[in-house]
Amino acid sequence: MGVPAANRESESPRSPEAKLGMHVEDLWDIQEPQLSPTEKLNACFESVPVSDFPSAPSNQVIEIRSDTSLAQAVQILAQHKILSAPVVDVDAPEDASWIDRYIGVVEFAGIVVWILHQSEPPSPRTPNSPTSPSSATAIAAAANGLKGLDLAGLLENGSDFAATTSGNFFEALTSSEFYKNTRVRDISGSFRWAPFLALQKDNTFLTMLLLLSKYKMKSVPVVDLGEGKIDNIITQAAVIHMLAECTGLQWFESWGTKKLSELGLPPMTADRIVKVYEDEPVLQAFKLMRKKKVGGVPVIESGGSKAVGNISLRDVQFLLTAPEIYHDYRSITAKNFLTAVRSHLEKQHEVYPMLSAMVTCKRDDTIKDLILRLDSEKIHRVYVVDNDGNLEGVITLRDIISRLVHEPRGYFGDFFDGVLPLPENTRV
Asked: What's the average model confidence in pLDDT over 293-317?
């Protein structure tokens, strides 16, 4: 039995998220008894508008001007410890609608795409294309010479480029006029949405949760149509924290006390996990994340199956903000990358998620255990290991949400109309 609503009214919730959880509890109590727990939760979250979600801290609702340099954008994202930020069109009129005011969202994923374009060999089919990646690299070389680099040789031996890239490449790239003069608007082709997919205040929690899980959004902007501006940004971390603050409530406990294995987690076998080995180039990790559309990959020991670290999209900042830390490495392998970054963070006396130690769990842990761990460690993924420490799977927030709610048939209707590109696997 849940706590009676009358008694809960006299309680003082420990946080805005807990207050929200108590509201869901009230809705849970009045659901039809024949509904399954998942159907009950769907109905509850469909009754809560996203305007009720607590506002993000002011230091996380950051907007980046379209004329900001890529170098400055990287610094802003790293400084505020955020993965992405909306880009404001500096040429938009003051009274522009939100669609005309923003040109997209810049995120570390898009910056990774841009960097990889600078490092890829020429395409044999389009050797002289002005928009080919090699042409962009040639422009970079022409703009600054990328002093000290045999760029032509690197391009000619493109297949070996990632394996031989040293800290010199990133020192040259980040000191080049090309990098400093490239504006955020210049990489707008790497943005996923145009300008981005946003929620309005009266959209529901269920819509927000489905966008974060099934439709693979890393964060969801909430727009104020009257102001034509973003009112809130709901991140994966914020949702994890909300769930963590709801422990003890009946609706949460009915689901959260189940073991991961009972809920079919992790969702894939170990051999299907996207991963890199410690002796592979770190650029291979970022290429895999780009190709497979995942936010992070485990680093596996050579010749074994134990994870020794994790590399995520946000970690590209360390190639761009501190390239000198790889100066002594002839090649930046995944292992060298982890070693250099850990040493750098220790010298800076910084605690950084996932690089300090691998965060793992077991199949017989509960969803509640997992959510509390994700929240306390400020991370989005946990690796599942067996009793010997061998990697068995990975669980992300998306996987957790997918076991919490489901998409009713035809739920989104015309929600995605006019949005390009359509999300993969959409049924609408």
From this structure: 89
Q: Distances in Å between the alpha carbon of 370 and those of 30, 38, 385? A: 28, 19, 13
Stated as kind and residue range, the H or E segment containing 67 is: none
Per-residue model confidence as pLDDT tens digits over 387-416: 998 899 999 999 999 999 999 999 998 888
Residues 6+ away with beta carbon under 8 Å from 266: 260, 363, 384, 392, 393, 394, 395, 399
The widest CA-to-CA distance across the chain, in whole angstroms, is 74
Our CA angle for 368, 369, 370, nearest 5°, is 90
pLDDT cut 90: percent of the chain above it? 46
Local structure of 378: helix, strand or coil: coil
Query: In terms of residues, how long is the chain?
Result: 428
- Measured between alpha carbons, how far is residue 245 from residues 19, 67, 405 in Å? 9, 39, 18
Contact yes or no for 183/91 (Cβ under 8 A): no
**Interval 78-110: pLDDT, tens:** 998 888 899 999 999 989 999 899 998 998 878
The amino acid at residue 349 is H
229, β-bridge pairs: 224
The C-alpha torsion from 296 through 298 and 266 to 20, rounded to 10°, is -40
The architecture CATH gives domain 261-402 = Roll (3.10)
Alpha carbon distance 115, 101 (integer Å): 27
List C-alpha distances in Å: 126 to 83, 129, 409.
33, 5, 44
Residues 197-234 as b/e (b if ≥16 CB within 10 A, e otherwise) read: bbbebebbbbbbbbbbbbbebbbbbbbeeeebbbbbbb
Count of C-beta atoms within a 10 Å radius of residue 5 = 12
> What is the gyration radius of the CA atoms in the chain, in angstroms?
23
* CA proximity to 313, closest of 279, 266, 360, 354: 354
Q: Up-side HSE of residue 403: CA atoms within 13 Å toward CB? A: 24
Q: Give the H/E segment covering residue 340.
A: helix 334-348
Please name the residue that has the structure tokens 């650029």: 283
What is the phi/psi pair of residue 209, to 5°?
Answer: -65, -40
**Residue in the structure block whose two tokens are 């391009």:** 155
Residues 208 and 51: their CA atoms lie apart, in Å, by 11
Please report, for the chain, the start and end positions of each structural domain, with discontinuous segments joined by +. Answer: 261-402
Q: What is the DSSP string of 74-138?
A: HHHHHHTT-SEEEEE-TTS-TT--HHHHEEEEEEHHHHHHHHHHHHSPPPSS-TT-TTSHHHHHH
Alpha carbon distances (Å) from 359 to 8, 219, 415: 35, 22, 37
